[in-house]
TrEMBL record:
Protein name per its UniProtKB record: Phosphonate C-P lyase system protein PhnH
Pfam family, one: PhnH
Lyase among keywords: yes
GO molecular function, one term: lyase activity
Keyword terms, alphabetized: Lyase
Organism: Paenibacillus planticolens
SUPFAM superfamilies, alphabetized: PhnH-like
Length: 197
């Protein structure tokens, strides 16, 4: 069975909206990912996120050792245009990106303007797992009191995200995808603190 570009992408999008509106909620894109043919260069959940989010009206940037290959794939699939990091509406930071690239990409990403806060970037980050790793405590809109999350990999993004999101409504929205086709969203309104062990 092949991925239905209308019904399956709409179903995946509803899951993403659920994760965005209730930060800490992990959505499973396994049903949609199982219908994909072999995807080269990025995780299936990342590719599905690209199909949901990219179109002819937006720009994107891929940060990866396989940047040219994945950029071509996303351009061909969505007709979105590749852009410089500082101008991109969506930034895809893949698992094979060199250490430090996540930090520098988040430093360079646009956070919008007070007259147009929606002109900010959404950063999509690939990781091994969104169910084990650095333990995080989340708070803010959409969360009763606090929620917990775990993300495998570097913790460097936590501080830079807090800096870039300090002047609400400006800031970056984050979407994290993993190797098990799961997705976790951290909107700019969500406060993220590393839990001390």
């Amino acid at each position: 069975m092949m991925l239905d570009m209308v019904h399956d992408i709409q179903a995946a999008y509803r899951k993403l909206v659920d994760s965005m509106s209730r930060p800490g909620t992990i959505s499973d894109l396994s049903d949609e990912a199982g219908k994909l043919e072999q995807v080269q260069g990025c995780l299936p959940a990342t590719y599905i996120a690209a199909l949901m989010l990219l179109d002819t009206e937006v720009t994107f940037k891929v940060v990866s050792e396989r940047e040219a290959e994945v950029t071509h794939l996303l351009s061909q699939s969505t007709y979105a245009k590749d852009a410089q990091l500082e101008e991109a509406d969506f930034i895809f930071i893949l698992r094979d990106a060199a250490p430090g690239y996540l930090h520098s990409a988040m430093e360079a990403a646009k956070i919008g303007e007070l007259t147009d806060p929606h002109s900010s970037a959404t950063v999509i980050i690939e990781t091994e797992s969104v169910t084990c790793g650095t333990k995080l405590r989340l708070s803010g809109p959409g969360i009763q009191s606090t929620a917990k999350a775990e993300i495998h990999g570097t913790e460097a993004w936590i501080d830079i995200r807090a800096e870039r999101n300090a002047e609400f409504p400006l800031g970056l929205d984050l979407i994290v995808t993993d190797t098990s086709h799961r997705i976790l969203a951290l909107p700019r309104t969500t406060q993220v603190v590393k839990e001390e062990i």
